[in-house]
Automatic annotation (TrEMBL):
UniProt cross-references to SUPFAM superfamilies, sorted A to Z: Nucleotide-diphospho-sugar transferases
Protein name, as recorded: Glycosyltransferase
Organism: Paenibacillus germinis
InterPro entries according to UniProt: Glyco_trans_2-like, Glycosyltransferase_2, Nucleotide-diphossugar_trans
Domain Glycosyltransferase 2-like: 6-123
Length: 243
């Protein structure tokens, strides 16, 4: 039986970008069907206060709306609950005219060479952050799983649905991708990282950008602490069982 692809897009206040993102995904319909796949597009509006829901509606197969903002992890979980696909492709809502490039991520899964594929985005051409969050996330993933990643914060990733179900639920907030990578390695998923020419909106070094990165730093740090405590509990349980 041919595989079925579910494209899941969590969105919060993306009315200005999501129609372009969805249109460029739909422009790749022939490519997807040429690979022998059927597909669906699922958007989860995570409590937006703009017209994200209305802007997405004409372009999608399934549309979910949270009554309040619950976080990216919860939005991803709601999307998975509605998905029928054997393969899941998670994308950010603001990729716009580069969204179709992300479909290359499903190729290693189709060839059974990987269980999860993560996009490595090109270096930013503008002054954005200072690399503190990315560096902490990269080091934390390596310390807690042994996996060396070049894209610790990438939200563009494809994964086999059956293997994803083995991991349980998603982490909350900005730590969702970090936790997903750690959990995937711990459960034995084969991961590849691919260079993909995707671009999306980046925060600058203004006050808003600093606040955003400060919150991201705190939530990624909390995620790493939670995963470290989880590993410690496993060690303690193993020690007790050997007594």
């Amino acid at each position: 039986m041919n595989p079925y692809l579910s494209i899941i897009i969590p969105a919060w206040n993306e009315a200005s970008t999501i129609p372009c993102t969805l249109q460029h995904l739909l422009n790749q319909s022939d490519f997807i069907r040429g690979a022998g796949m059927s597909f669906e597009i699922i958007v989860v509006d995570d409590g937006s206060v703009d017209n994200t829901y209305e802007a997405a509606w004409p372009w999608v197969d399934k549309l979910v709306k949270h009554d309040r903002r619950r976080g990216k992890g919860a939005a991803m979980q709601s999307g998975v609950a509605k998905a029928r696909g054997d393969l899941l492709l998670f994308l950010d809502a603001d990729l716009q005219d580069t969204a179709g490039e992300a479909l290359v991520l499903i190729e290693p899964l189709l060839r059974r060479e990987a269980d999860m594929a993560i996009a490595k985005l090109p270096p930013s051409t503008a002054k954005a952050g200072f690399g503190l969050v990315k560096g902490m996330a990269r080091r934390g993933i390596h310390r807690l799983s042994g996996y060396k990643t070049e894209a610790p914060l990438s939200g563009q990733r494809a994964v086999r649905a059956d293997r994803l179900r083995e991991l349980g639920g998603f982490a909350h907030g900005f730590g969702v991708e970090v936790a997903l990578t750690i959990d995937a390695v711990r459960h034995g998923l084969r991961i590849v990282e691919l260079d993909v020419p995707i671009t999306h909106r980046e925060t600058g070094r203004d006050w808003h950008g600093c606040v955003h990165r400060g919150k991201q730093f705190a939530e990624v740090g909390l995620t790493l602490l939670t995963r470290w405590k989880g590993r410690k509990q496993v060690w303690l349980s193993s020690d007790r069982s050997s007594i």
